[in-house]
Write a structure and sequence with these properties.
The protein is α/β, with parallel strands linked by helices and 221 residues long. It contains ten helices and five strands. The protein has a five-stranded parallel β-sheet, with helices on both faces. Strand 3, helix 3 and strand 4 form a beta-alpha-beta unit. The protein is globular, with a radius of gyration of 17 Å.
Length: 221
């Protein structure tokens, strides 16, 4: 069962998401928060698998709430998905940088909302759409606090190839096809890459790839 916390200051939005998710046999909405501070408190209390976090909320915004959840070692298993009204939103990149595992636009189709919750719950970043990749590229290219480039011997040549492909938004299956290896092997390599770079999931791997200069926005054209 995937446990979900809904964090949005609009009661009707929360009710809509609860209605959609509550009808799935493998998803349970365990709590609702009307502001960012409450989202942090309820995350610590209920330990959800996924938090659907509105980016703009009173008391504490979604970015700061995400930062606090990610910074708490006891909440390492909690994944945050940012909810936003517009796909080109400066707050989105800030949230990904803070440790969110992806984002969804509020008017997304119900089937995509459900899919997104499942994708993040199993440990994957919600970064497949090309608009998301371009969003990250745009803001990473002008980030004021770049990450130092990884030393060449920190990643093996194969791990470097896979990191580059993840950064362009490819799925495990697409990477497997490109490199002519199995999806299970790709998943194993990604797990090792995340461990070496001390990253939570592939969403942070994408951000790291741009900020470190390993991947550049022009590569997506």
């Amino acid at each position: 069962m995937i446990r979900v916390l809904l964090a949005d200051d609009q009661t009707l939005v929360r009710a809509g998401f609860r209605s959609i998710l509550g009808g799935e046999p493998d998803i349970e909405v365990v709590a609702e928060a009307g502001d960012g501070a409450e989202a942090v408190r309820l995350s610590a209390r209920d330990r959800p698998d996924v938090v659907l976090m509105d980016v703009r909320m009173p008391v504490l915004d979604g970015i700061e709430a995400t930062t606090r959840i990610v910074a708490d070692p006891s909440l390492a298993a909690v994944k945050v998905v940012i909810l936003t009204t517009f796909d080109h939103d400066e707050y989105v990149y800030g949230a990904l940088r803070a440790g969110a595992s992806g984002f969804l636009v509020k008017d997304t189709e119900p089937v995509e909302l459900i899919r997104g919750v499942r994708v993040v719950a199993r440990g994957d970043g919600l970064l497949a759409p090309s608009v998301t990749r371009r969003l990250i590229a745009e803001f990473a290219s002008r980030s004021s606090a770049p990450v130092p480039p990884v030393a060449p011997n920190d990643l093996t040549p194969r791990e470097g190839e896979i990191a580059d492909l993840v950064a362009t938004g490819r799925s495990n299956e697409e990477i497997a096809t490109t490199l002519m290896i199995s999806s299970a092997t790709v998943k194993t390599h990604i797990t090792r890459i995340l461990a070496k770079l001390s990253l939570r999931d592939r969403a942070q791997l994408v951000v790291w790839a741009y900020e470190s200069g390993r991947t550049r926005p022009g590569w997506l054209d």
